[in-house]
Amino acid sequence: MGATNYKGVKTLIELFNNRQDLQSFYPEAGEGDLAKLVAWALEFGTSIDGAKDLLLPYWKEFRDFNQAEYNNSFTWDNSVEHYIPDGFKIYWEMLNRVSSYQFECISGNWNLDLLTYTINILRKNFSDKKIRAGIIGCSEMGRPEIKLSKTKMFSEIVVMDIAKNLLEQQQEKAVAENIRNIEYRQTDFNDFILNEDEFDYINAWGTIHHIKNLEHFFAQIQKGLKKDGIMIIREYVGPDYLQFTDLQLNIVNLLLSLLPDEFKYFQNQKDIKNTEYRVSKEKLMQLDPTESVRSGEILKIMNEYFEVIEFKKTGGTILHPLLNGIAGNFDKDPKGDKVLKGLIDIEKGLINSDMLPSDFVYIVAKSKK
Predict the structure, then answer these.
(1) Mind spelling out the 3-state secondary structure of 136-155?
(2) What residue numbers bound the domain in which 300 lies?
(3) What pLDDT is recorded for position 282?
(4) In a domain, 37, yes or no
Protein backbone atom coordinates (compact mmCIF):
# COMPACT_ATOMS: atom_id res chain seq x y z
CA MET A 1 0.00 0.00 0.00
CA GLY A 2 2.73 2.46 -0.85
CA ALA A 3 5.49 3.54 1.49
CA THR A 4 3.45 2.99 4.65
CA ASN A 5 1.81 -0.34 5.40
CA TYR A 6 -1.75 0.35 6.53
CA LYS A 7 -2.63 -3.26 7.15
CA GLY A 8 -3.56 -2.45 10.75
CA VAL A 9 -5.98 0.26 9.68
CA LYS A 10 -7.65 -2.16 7.27
CA THR A 11 -7.86 -4.74 10.08
CA LEU A 12 -9.46 -2.13 12.30
CA ILE A 13 -12.05 -1.19 9.66
CA GLU A 14 -12.88 -4.83 9.03
CA LEU A 15 -13.25 -5.50 12.75
CA PHE A 16 -15.50 -2.48 13.27
CA ASN A 17 -17.67 -3.28 10.24
CA ASN A 18 -18.22 -6.85 11.43
CA ARG A 19 -18.89 -6.11 15.09
CA GLN A 20 -22.31 -4.60 15.70
CA ASP A 21 -21.63 -4.46 19.44
CA LEU A 22 -18.62 -2.18 18.88
CA GLN A 23 -20.58 0.02 16.50
CA SER A 24 -23.39 0.51 18.99
CA PHE A 25 -21.01 1.08 21.92
CA TYR A 26 -18.87 3.65 20.11
CA PRO A 27 -21.18 5.16 17.46
CA GLU A 28 -18.99 8.24 17.09
CA ALA A 29 -16.29 6.01 15.58
CA GLY A 30 -18.59 4.89 12.79
CA GLU A 31 -19.30 8.25 11.19
CA GLY A 32 -17.07 7.54 8.20
CA ASP A 33 -14.10 9.42 9.68
CA LEU A 34 -11.04 7.16 9.76
CA ALA A 35 -9.14 9.50 12.05
CA LYS A 36 -11.92 9.10 14.65
CA LEU A 37 -11.85 5.35 14.23
CA VAL A 38 -8.09 5.23 14.80
CA ALA A 39 -8.48 7.53 17.81
CA TRP A 40 -11.10 5.14 19.17
CA ALA A 41 -8.72 2.20 18.73
CA LEU A 42 -5.95 4.04 20.54
CA GLU A 43 -8.21 4.82 23.47
CA PHE A 44 -10.37 1.71 23.75
CA GLY A 45 -9.28 -1.00 21.33
CA THR A 46 -7.04 -3.14 23.53
CA SER A 47 -9.58 -3.26 26.33
CA ILE A 48 -12.38 -4.69 24.18
CA ASP A 49 -12.77 -8.45 24.14
CA GLY A 50 -12.08 -9.86 20.67
CA ALA A 51 -10.25 -6.76 19.48
CA LYS A 52 -7.09 -6.91 21.56
CA ASP A 53 -5.30 -9.73 19.75
CA LEU A 54 -6.10 -8.27 16.35
CA LEU A 55 -5.11 -4.67 17.06
CA LEU A 56 -2.07 -4.91 19.34
CA PRO A 57 0.42 -5.79 16.55
CA TYR A 58 -0.47 -2.51 14.80
CA TRP A 59 -0.29 -0.11 17.72
CA LYS A 60 2.65 1.86 16.32
CA GLU A 61 0.84 2.11 12.99
CA PHE A 62 -2.23 3.57 14.71
CA ARG A 63 -0.09 5.98 16.70
CA ASP A 64 1.58 7.28 13.53
CA PHE A 65 -1.61 7.32 11.47
CA ASN A 66 -1.78 10.16 8.96
CA GLN A 67 -5.20 10.70 7.36
CA ALA A 68 -3.96 12.57 4.29
CA GLU A 69 -1.22 10.04 3.62
CA TYR A 70 -3.69 7.19 3.96
CA ASN A 71 -6.11 8.78 1.50
CA ASN A 72 -3.34 8.95 -1.11
CA SER A 73 -1.82 5.55 -0.37
CA PHE A 74 -4.30 3.04 -1.69
CA THR A 75 -2.78 0.81 -4.37
CA TRP A 76 -2.94 -2.87 -5.28
CA ASP A 77 0.77 -3.49 -4.86
CA ASN A 78 0.07 -6.57 -2.74
CA SER A 79 -3.21 -8.08 -3.87
CA VAL A 80 -2.59 -11.36 -2.05
CA GLU A 81 -2.95 -9.58 1.29
CA HIS A 82 -6.31 -8.16 0.20
CA TYR A 83 -7.77 -11.57 -0.50
CA ILE A 84 -5.79 -13.94 1.77
CA PRO A 85 -4.59 -11.92 4.79
CA ASP A 86 -2.21 -13.98 6.92
CA GLY A 87 -3.12 -17.08 4.92
CA PHE A 88 -6.87 -16.99 5.65
CA LYS A 89 -9.09 -16.69 2.57
CA ILE A 90 -11.65 -13.94 3.05
CA TYR A 91 -12.82 -13.66 -0.57
CA TRP A 92 -15.20 -16.08 -2.27
CA GLU A 93 -13.20 -16.64 -5.46
CA MET A 94 -10.13 -17.87 -3.57
CA LEU A 95 -11.82 -21.23 -2.95
CA ASN A 96 -11.05 -24.09 -5.38
CA ARG A 97 -14.66 -25.25 -5.48
CA VAL A 98 -15.77 -21.75 -6.41
CA SER A 99 -13.13 -21.59 -9.16
CA SER A 100 -14.49 -24.83 -10.60
CA TYR A 101 -18.00 -23.41 -10.46
CA GLN A 102 -16.80 -20.37 -12.39
CA PHE A 103 -15.12 -22.58 -15.00
CA GLU A 104 -18.36 -24.50 -15.50
CA CYS A 105 -20.31 -21.26 -15.96
CA ILE A 106 -17.86 -20.04 -18.59
CA SER A 107 -16.78 -23.16 -20.46
CA GLY A 108 -19.43 -25.72 -19.50
CA ASN A 109 -16.70 -27.87 -17.96
CA TRP A 110 -15.56 -27.81 -14.30
CA ASN A 111 -12.06 -28.76 -15.45
CA LEU A 112 -11.67 -26.27 -18.32
CA ASP A 113 -10.35 -23.13 -16.68
CA LEU A 114 -10.99 -19.52 -17.63
CA LEU A 115 -7.60 -18.91 -19.26
CA THR A 116 -7.59 -22.14 -21.30
CA TYR A 117 -11.10 -21.39 -22.57
CA THR A 118 -9.96 -17.88 -23.51
CA ILE A 119 -6.89 -19.21 -25.32
CA ASN A 120 -9.14 -21.55 -27.33
CA ILE A 121 -11.22 -18.53 -28.43
CA LEU A 122 -8.07 -16.69 -29.48
CA ARG A 123 -6.84 -19.67 -31.49
CA LYS A 124 -10.12 -19.72 -33.44
CA ASN A 125 -10.02 -15.98 -34.10
CA PHE A 126 -6.31 -15.57 -34.84
CA SER A 127 -5.17 -18.87 -36.35
CA ASP A 128 -3.01 -17.26 -39.02
CA LYS A 129 -1.17 -14.46 -37.17
CA LYS A 130 0.77 -13.50 -34.08
CA ILE A 131 -1.40 -11.59 -31.61
CA ARG A 132 -0.60 -8.22 -30.04
CA ALA A 133 -2.46 -8.14 -26.72
CA GLY A 134 -3.31 -5.53 -24.12
CA ILE A 135 -4.12 -6.63 -20.58
CA ILE A 136 -6.16 -4.27 -18.42
CA GLY A 137 -5.00 -4.76 -14.83
CA CYS A 138 -1.94 -6.55 -13.47
CA SER A 139 -2.67 -9.76 -11.57
CA GLU A 140 -0.13 -10.71 -8.95
CA MET A 141 -1.66 -14.14 -8.37
CA GLY A 142 -2.97 -15.22 -11.76
CA ARG A 143 -0.26 -13.66 -13.97
CA PRO A 144 -2.21 -14.43 -17.17
CA GLU A 145 0.36 -12.60 -19.31
CA ILE A 146 3.00 -15.24 -18.45
CA LYS A 147 0.72 -18.11 -19.36
CA LEU A 148 -0.35 -16.38 -22.55
CA SER A 149 3.25 -15.66 -23.54
CA LYS A 150 4.22 -19.30 -23.11
CA THR A 151 1.66 -20.33 -25.76
CA LYS A 152 3.93 -18.65 -28.39
CA MET A 153 0.79 -17.11 -29.93
CA PHE A 154 1.75 -13.51 -29.10
CA SER A 155 4.14 -11.05 -30.68
CA GLU A 156 3.81 -8.70 -27.71
CA ILE A 157 1.74 -8.37 -24.54
CA VAL A 158 1.26 -5.00 -22.84
CA VAL A 159 0.14 -5.17 -19.20
CA MET A 160 -1.39 -1.91 -17.95
CA ASP A 161 -2.14 -0.94 -14.35
CA ILE A 162 -2.00 2.05 -12.03
CA ALA A 163 0.09 0.22 -9.39
CA LYS A 164 3.70 1.09 -10.24
CA ASN A 165 5.30 -1.15 -7.61
CA LEU A 166 3.23 -4.14 -8.67
CA LEU A 167 4.15 -3.63 -12.33
CA GLU A 168 7.86 -3.41 -11.49
CA GLN A 169 7.62 -6.51 -9.33
CA GLN A 170 5.88 -8.52 -12.05
CA GLN A 171 8.32 -7.30 -14.70
CA GLU A 172 11.23 -8.54 -12.61
CA LYS A 173 9.59 -11.94 -12.40
CA ALA A 174 9.06 -12.06 -16.17
CA VAL A 175 12.70 -11.14 -16.84
CA ALA A 176 13.83 -13.80 -14.35
CA GLU A 177 11.86 -16.35 -16.38
CA ASN A 178 13.53 -15.04 -19.57
CA ILE A 179 10.24 -13.79 -21.00
CA ARG A 180 10.99 -10.77 -23.17
CA ASN A 181 7.81 -9.99 -25.11
CA ILE A 182 5.87 -8.40 -22.20
CA GLU A 183 5.76 -4.67 -21.52
CA TYR A 184 4.51 -3.43 -18.13
CA ARG A 185 2.98 0.04 -18.49
CA GLN A 186 1.76 2.30 -15.67
CA THR A 187 -1.65 3.63 -16.66
CA ASP A 188 -4.64 5.39 -15.13
CA PHE A 189 -7.61 4.02 -17.05
CA ASN A 190 -9.70 7.09 -16.30
CA ASP A 191 -7.61 9.21 -18.67
CA PHE A 192 -5.34 6.82 -20.63
CA ILE A 193 -4.86 7.07 -24.38
CA LEU A 194 -4.39 4.12 -26.73
CA ASN A 195 -3.05 4.33 -30.26
CA GLU A 196 -5.40 3.63 -33.16
CA ASP A 197 -5.56 -0.11 -33.98
CA GLU A 198 -2.91 -0.90 -31.38
CA PHE A 199 -4.13 -4.38 -30.32
CA ASP A 200 -5.65 -7.53 -31.77
CA TYR A 201 -6.95 -8.58 -28.37
CA ILE A 202 -7.70 -6.78 -25.10
CA ASN A 203 -8.23 -8.66 -21.87
CA ALA A 204 -9.87 -7.10 -18.79
CA TRP A 205 -10.47 -9.28 -15.75
CA GLY A 206 -11.55 -7.68 -12.49
CA THR A 207 -10.39 -4.12 -13.14
CA ILE A 208 -13.21 -2.31 -14.94
CA HIS A 209 -15.35 -2.00 -11.80
CA HIS A 210 -12.61 0.26 -10.37
CA ILE A 211 -12.88 2.72 -13.28
CA LYS A 212 -15.00 5.85 -12.88
CA ASN A 213 -14.71 7.30 -16.38
CA LEU A 214 -16.26 4.33 -18.16
CA GLU A 215 -17.21 6.29 -21.28
CA HIS A 216 -13.59 7.30 -21.86
CA PHE A 217 -12.34 3.81 -21.02
CA PHE A 218 -14.54 1.97 -23.51
CA ALA A 219 -13.98 4.62 -26.18
CA GLN A 220 -10.23 4.08 -25.86
CA ILE A 221 -10.58 0.29 -25.91
CA GLN A 222 -12.65 0.61 -29.08
CA LYS A 223 -10.03 2.92 -30.58
CA GLY A 224 -7.14 0.64 -29.60
CA LEU A 225 -8.67 -2.54 -31.02
CA LYS A 226 -8.18 -3.44 -34.66
CA LYS A 227 -11.28 -3.92 -36.79
CA ASP A 228 -11.17 -7.71 -36.39
CA GLY A 229 -10.02 -7.50 -32.77
CA ILE A 230 -11.82 -8.87 -29.74
CA MET A 231 -12.20 -7.86 -26.13
CA ILE A 232 -12.78 -10.41 -23.37
CA ILE A 233 -13.83 -9.28 -19.92
CA ARG A 234 -14.59 -11.09 -16.71
CA GLU A 235 -16.09 -8.57 -14.34
CA TYR A 236 -18.22 -7.62 -11.36
CA VAL A 237 -21.29 -5.78 -12.70
CA GLY A 238 -23.40 -5.78 -9.53
CA PRO A 239 -24.60 -2.80 -7.48
CA ASP A 240 -22.35 0.26 -7.24
CA TYR A 241 -20.22 0.48 -4.09
CA LEU A 242 -21.29 -3.08 -3.14
CA GLN A 243 -24.71 -1.80 -2.07
CA PHE A 244 -26.30 -5.24 -2.25
CA THR A 245 -30.08 -5.37 -2.66
CA ASP A 246 -32.50 -6.24 0.13
CA LEU A 247 -33.36 -9.48 -1.67
CA GLN A 248 -29.70 -10.50 -1.88
CA LEU A 249 -29.07 -9.78 1.78
CA ASN A 250 -32.27 -11.51 2.91
CA ILE A 251 -31.25 -14.70 1.11
CA VAL A 252 -27.67 -14.45 2.34
CA ASN A 253 -28.77 -14.01 5.94
CA LEU A 254 -31.23 -16.89 5.69
CA LEU A 255 -28.40 -19.13 4.50
CA LEU A 256 -26.11 -17.85 7.27
CA SER A 257 -28.75 -18.80 9.83
CA LEU A 258 -28.70 -22.37 8.45
CA LEU A 259 -24.91 -22.75 8.36
CA PRO A 260 -23.17 -24.48 11.29
CA ASP A 261 -20.96 -22.17 13.36
CA GLU A 262 -17.74 -23.84 12.20
CA PHE A 263 -18.24 -22.30 8.75
CA LYS A 264 -18.96 -18.80 10.04
CA TYR A 265 -15.81 -17.83 11.95
CA PHE A 266 -13.97 -14.68 10.97
CA GLN A 267 -10.20 -14.73 10.56
CA ASN A 268 -9.59 -14.36 14.30
CA GLN A 269 -11.47 -17.66 14.83
CA LYS A 270 -13.35 -16.08 17.75
CA ASP A 271 -16.10 -13.94 16.28
CA ILE A 272 -18.91 -15.56 14.28
CA LYS A 273 -20.64 -14.02 11.29
CA ASN A 274 -24.38 -14.31 11.86
CA THR A 275 -25.43 -11.41 9.65
CA GLU A 276 -24.15 -9.78 6.45
CA TYR A 277 -24.86 -6.05 6.59
CA ARG A 278 -24.91 -3.59 3.73
CA VAL A 279 -21.51 -1.93 3.80
CA SER A 280 -21.40 1.78 4.57
CA LYS A 281 -20.71 3.56 1.29
CA GLU A 282 -18.73 6.23 3.14
CA LYS A 283 -16.49 3.68 4.88
CA LEU A 284 -15.94 1.75 1.67
CA MET A 285 -14.89 4.92 -0.15
CA GLN A 286 -12.35 5.64 2.56
CA LEU A 287 -10.86 2.17 2.32
CA ASP A 288 -10.92 2.18 -1.51
CA PRO A 289 -12.67 5.07 -3.29
CA THR A 290 -12.59 3.13 -6.58
CA GLU A 291 -14.36 -0.02 -5.36
CA SER A 292 -17.36 -0.71 -7.63
CA VAL A 293 -17.53 3.00 -8.37
CA ARG A 294 -19.88 2.54 -11.37
CA SER A 295 -20.10 -1.25 -11.61
CA GLY A 296 -23.85 -1.24 -12.24
CA GLU A 297 -23.36 0.82 -15.43
CA ILE A 298 -20.60 -1.26 -17.03
CA LEU A 299 -22.82 -3.38 -19.29
CA LYS A 300 -24.94 -0.44 -20.46
CA ILE A 301 -21.93 1.70 -21.41
CA MET A 302 -19.98 -1.20 -22.92
CA ASN A 303 -22.94 -1.96 -25.22
CA GLU A 304 -22.66 1.53 -26.72
CA TYR A 305 -19.22 0.65 -28.10
CA PHE A 306 -19.18 -3.15 -28.45
CA GLU A 307 -21.26 -5.98 -29.86
CA VAL A 308 -21.47 -8.93 -27.46
CA ILE A 309 -20.53 -12.28 -29.03
CA GLU A 310 -20.63 -14.42 -25.89
CA PHE A 311 -22.29 -13.59 -22.57
CA LYS A 312 -21.87 -15.98 -19.61
CA LYS A 313 -23.39 -15.51 -16.17
CA THR A 314 -20.77 -16.50 -13.59
CA GLY A 315 -22.67 -15.99 -10.35
CA GLY A 316 -21.47 -14.40 -7.14
CA THR A 317 -24.80 -12.70 -6.39
CA ILE A 318 -25.19 -14.78 -3.22
CA LEU A 319 -21.76 -16.33 -2.68
CA HIS A 320 -19.85 -13.03 -2.84
CA PRO A 321 -21.60 -11.43 0.18
CA LEU A 322 -22.25 -14.75 1.92
CA LEU A 323 -18.62 -15.86 2.01
CA ASN A 324 -17.23 -12.38 2.67
CA GLY A 325 -14.76 -12.66 5.53
CA ILE A 326 -15.38 -16.38 6.20
CA ALA A 327 -14.44 -18.24 3.00
CA GLY A 328 -11.35 -19.85 4.55
CA ASN A 329 -13.47 -21.98 6.87
CA PHE A 330 -14.65 -24.09 3.94
CA ASP A 331 -11.05 -25.10 3.25
CA LYS A 332 -10.37 -25.99 6.88
CA ASP A 333 -13.36 -28.26 7.56
CA PRO A 334 -13.55 -31.69 5.82
CA LYS A 335 -17.27 -31.14 5.21
CA GLY A 336 -16.64 -27.71 3.70
CA ASP A 337 -16.58 -28.78 0.07
CA LYS A 338 -19.90 -30.59 0.32
CA VAL A 339 -21.57 -27.65 2.07
CA LEU A 340 -20.10 -25.21 -0.44
CA LYS A 341 -21.41 -27.28 -3.35
CA GLY A 342 -24.89 -27.03 -1.84
CA LEU A 343 -24.60 -23.25 -1.58
CA ILE A 344 -23.43 -23.07 -5.19
CA ASP A 345 -26.44 -25.12 -6.32
CA ILE A 346 -28.77 -22.70 -4.53
CA GLU A 347 -27.16 -19.69 -6.21
CA LYS A 348 -27.23 -21.36 -9.63
CA GLY A 349 -30.93 -22.13 -9.23
CA LEU A 350 -31.78 -18.54 -8.29
CA ILE A 351 -29.81 -17.07 -11.21
CA ASN A 352 -30.86 -19.63 -13.83
CA SER A 353 -34.52 -19.07 -12.93
CA ASP A 354 -34.01 -15.29 -13.31
CA MET A 355 -35.01 -14.69 -9.70
CA LEU A 356 -31.65 -12.95 -9.30
CA PRO A 357 -29.24 -11.36 -11.79
CA SER A 358 -25.64 -12.54 -12.03
CA ASP A 359 -23.29 -10.04 -10.37
CA PHE A 360 -20.29 -11.44 -12.27
CA VAL A 361 -20.09 -12.04 -16.02
CA TYR A 362 -17.72 -13.30 -18.73
CA ILE A 363 -18.07 -11.51 -22.07
CA VAL A 364 -16.51 -11.82 -25.52
CA ALA A 365 -17.15 -8.70 -27.62
CA LYS A 366 -16.20 -7.01 -30.87
CA SER A 367 -16.07 -3.30 -31.58
CA LYS A 368 -18.99 -1.59 -33.32
CA LYS A 369 -16.66 0.75 -35.21
Answers:
(1) ECCCCCCCHHHHHHCCCCEE
(2) 92-240+285-367
(3) 82
(4) yes
